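Hi there,

I know you've been waiting on this one. I reran it after we fixed the sequence typo, so this is the corrected version. Both the input and the resulting structure follow.
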Amino acid sequence: MTHRSTAQSWTLDIALAQGGFDALHPEAKGTMEQLGHDHTDFDKVFALVKSGAMLPKAWAAIAAQAEERATHHERNGFRRTASDLYERAAVMWGRAQYSILDTTDPRKAAFRARTGHCVARLGELRDDRVRRVVLDFEGGLIYGLLHLPAGPVQGAPAVILGPGMDMIKEDYIHAAERYYTSRGTVALSIEGPGQGETRTGGLTVDLTNYERAIGRYLDYLTELPEVDPQRIGMFGISMSGYWGSRAAATDRRLAALAAFEAVTGDFHTIFDRAQPSFKNNYMCMAGYTDEAAFDRDLTTHLPLGDLVENITCPVLYGIGEFDELTPLEQALTSFDRIHAPKELRVYENEFHPLGGVAAEAFRFAAEWLERALHGEFAEPARDIRHYVHRDGRTTDGTARPTWWLDGR
């Protein structure tokens, strides 16, 4: 636990009691819906929460309700209804286990087991189109979920779905089907070092091993007959936008990258000025208990800096104007450093979750990747920038907010 996390935990309780989840992450419910959470489940959970300590119990309670209903429908032969409810239960059991940082806590293992059970059931009910993936990696194991289009598929484009720091591979089940496999694209939702089952198994994240893990997932995809190895892209949000940027700069097999909410600036903002939970979580992912050692070994070395100059594939970035984890000025500076074909969208009055535009952003990223993996957007001088207004307008040619007065 960081000093700020320990000293300021009472502020989390007040925020949850007075404003619910929105007090911590404005409008994030829209993003959570894209990650498989039904809004009614979400409301039920936070009606039970008045402090941070209550989160695991609340998530588990509503997850159990969804799973029980799923079992009922499966028993009566309503396969699709059952699989949808198993999906809802899986993401909620995942939230319950995530809310417990201690990897040795038996409750975390129990919630993780329920998540796995629900995924196994929905995979079978969806004709084995959602498959568990376990890969050897640097003395340990990394875990993913392979999502396949319906019917025979061979030589199709593929997209790696990278989870943010606070996410797990199961969070992409809904988006994988809605935005990728329904369009004939193979999807692979992943967990890198420090996340989910990978962290429970002992693998922690360091400065560079996450992009190597992405490389290991690329190894796996290139060997699948269902996948065209020349057409593999990546979608990443939050920290996976950061890790995806590192992978794009170091592994030429990535043919395109769409990164939303990416942490592309200094890491003092996310770790020293944003909610204390971010640093606390990352220290757990990295296996640190000594905050000074964590700052010395990681915080000062994490920023992308000039590494993005090595990116050669087409890239798309999207960020909220008031992202709490990356100041917009720093995001613009990082984008300027990229020499590859690139596109940037800044969303007016949005915060880190991009909740107000989540459905649009998820669909746009998927469609952009589909076109990029078919050879579009590859002109070396491509530099597209938009400032997306809340009222539906866009200012084209620049992503700088118009109220800065130099927007044009």
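Quick highlight: The beta strands are 130-137, 140-147, 156-162, 186-191, 227-237, 256-260, 315-320, 342-347, 383-388, 394-396.

Best,
R. S.
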